[in-house]
Fold this sequence. Notes:
Strand content: 5-15%
Pfam family, one: Arginase
Number of domains: 1
Number of strands: 8
Bound molecules: 2-acetamido-2-deoxy-beta-D-glucopyranose
EC number: 3.5.3.11
Low-confidence stretches: 1-19, 400-416
Order of helices and strands: HHEHEHEHEHEHEHEHEH
Organism: Penicillium steckii
Shape: globular
CATH topology: Arginase, Chain A
Keywords: Hydrolase, Manganese, Metal-binding, Signal
Signal peptide: 1-19
Helix content: 25-40%
Amino acid sequence: MPAWxxxxxxxxxxxxxxxCAHHGDTEVVPExxxxxxxxxxxQEWSFTGIASFAHLKPVKCLIEPSxxxxxxxxxxxxxxxxxxxxxxxxxxxxxxxxxxRQMSGTSFNxxxxxxxxxxxAKITDCGDIPITPFDNGLAERQxxxxxxxxxxxxxxxxxxxxxxxxxxxxxKLVTLGGDHSVALPALRALHQxxxxxxxxxxxxxxxxxxxxxxxxxxxQSEQTQFNHGSFFHKASREGLxxxxxxxxxxxxxxxxxxxxxxxTNPGPEQGFIRIHADDIDELGPMGVxxxxxxxxxxxxxQPVYLSVDIDVLDPSTAPGTGTPEPGGWTTREFxxxxxxxxxxxxxxxxxxxxxxxxxxxxxxxxxxxxxxxFEIITSMVKSGVKEDLxxxxxxxxxxxxxxxxxxxxxxxxxxx
Length: 416
Ligand SMILES: *[C@@H]1O[C@H](CO)[C@@H](O)[C@H](O)[C@H]1NC(C)=O
């Protein structure tokens, strides 16, 4: 049969199907039936549902221009700029799956004194940026355009604290990576939105400020500069990073050559102070916090980007990553540090380099990443709340209901 004939045949079939299915398509469910259905079936267990981050409503925000939010969680599944193990393109999926026990009704963060999913902020899982794996230059442009678009939307709810910081009025972006190079288009977008250099707080075993010639001085192209070890070099040279307020923390990388020249060469490396993983032994987690805040300050007019390479954690805690380095922090230490930083004026954050192929069956790395995202989202919400909620790091609880204003009416299950 010639192709056109089968095409006509298909059309006829399709027509029949449409007229058959027409009846009943638009029937409206009466209100009382709807109510009954919701009572009966509108329940989720931590292990049910299509895996969005923390069971948040998933929306493909990039194709829904009228979708607004206060905080967007966005996946950046991209890993073609890594120098060692690939696989972080599967990071967003793994982190979402590992976030399953973060249900809005059961997510009161005792360390912070607030449930970020039941407070003032509308938080949406905006899905993934459909990033090409075939052309890194194009991928970079896709990510930049996506971050710029998502970060330029209107916010929904005014933070109770009011408009006293530069971040107010713009939604905050939490990116699930992806390899670490996704931070470059994110910083370009934030620089465009805030029109000033951004303070970068960078948790990582590695510097990521390396001049791309470190990888190969001879074989250079524009694209070799966009990689997961040089993006802060590029970002600094582009003037996106504030050189006097930024910090690396958790460092323990080997350096190039025969001395600590990577630290002392003039260049963007100097735009960051360096806190090493081992410093925690002398300083303790709260000493690390103090050192960071001394550097970053708490200026309400200065936007801060928090970039978390999951390899800041020890490989015993987070093996599923691209460039593991033994001797890192534990999850507990890192959570405590993050909680100590809740007053930073975070406008964006990323959790990157989760590579589930190297993770274990207990999803240790993805669980850590989901918890880090939870702590960051908690801080973003908490910073918009007027009253002092305390939490373990403010003062000890003497009132179990501190900070909880809404009734826990839709708590369906204990976290057992
Ligand atoms: C930070 O320092 C680099 C050079 O090390 C420079 O190119 C860049 O413009 C500086 N950034 C700002 C915001 O001044």
